[in-house]
Amino acid sequence: MPRIEWRVPRRRPAVKLVGAAVFLAVALVYARDPGRWVTAVLAAVALGAFALRDVLAPVRLAADTTGVTVVHGFAGTRHIPWGEVERVRVDARGRLGRRDEVLEVDTGESLHLFGAQELGADLDTVAAALVALRTGNPIPGG
Q1: Do residue 18 and residue 68 come from a single domain?
Q2: Residue 139 pLDDT > 90, yes or no?
Q3: Same domain? 43 vs 87
Q4: Domain range for residue 110?
Q5: Looking at the 3D structure of the chain, how many domains does it have?
Q6: Bridge partners for 98 per DSSP
Q7: How confident is the model at residue 96 (pLDDT cuts 50, 70, 90)?
Q8: SS3 annotation, the chain
Q9: What angle do CA 95, 44, 14 make, to 5 degrees?
Q10: pLDDT of 95 above 90
């Protein structure tokens, strides 16, 4: 069975870099106001760092018959054999009129969380594919 990968959508780092540029422009406008200048520069640096992570580690989650590979640290990866994975599920919660979903890959010792924007896919579909790979069943829709 081939490896399946879920990655950050290609335009996401570009959007973050544009946001960083906007915050740098705001910093220039407020150059004489230290509080606003520092806030704008920090926001630009943070967005730039997140964009860099998206470029360095675009594949956030991958899976095959041996296990899952997750992003670990800033841009590293960690392979987790299926025997160490205790649970794969989508946690959905409602808050402030919104429904937020997170894919959880639980190893008992660590919990790896992924959002739909980060994986570029529907989380229920990703969870179903992971469970199918874990159990050796055919992947739904694949």
Answers
A1: no
A2: no
A3: no
A4: 59-135
A5: 2
A6: 95
A7: confident
A8: CCCEEEECCCHHHHHHHHHHHHHHHHHHHCCCCHHHHHHHHHHHHHHHHHHHHHHHCCEEEEEECCEEEEEECCCEEEEEEHHHCCEEEEEEEEECCEEEEEEEEECCCCEEEECHHHHCCCHHHHHHHHHHHHHCCCCCCC
A9: 80
A10: no
Token representation of residue 138: 């055919």
Question: 95 with 63, same domain?
Answer: yes
Averaged pLDDT for residues 22-51: 95
Residue range 104-113, pLDDT digits in tens? 999 999 999 9
CATH number at residue 87: 2.30.29
Q: What is the predicted pLDDT for the residue at 94? A: 83
Instruction: Indicate if 66 and 42 belong to the same structural domain.
Output: no
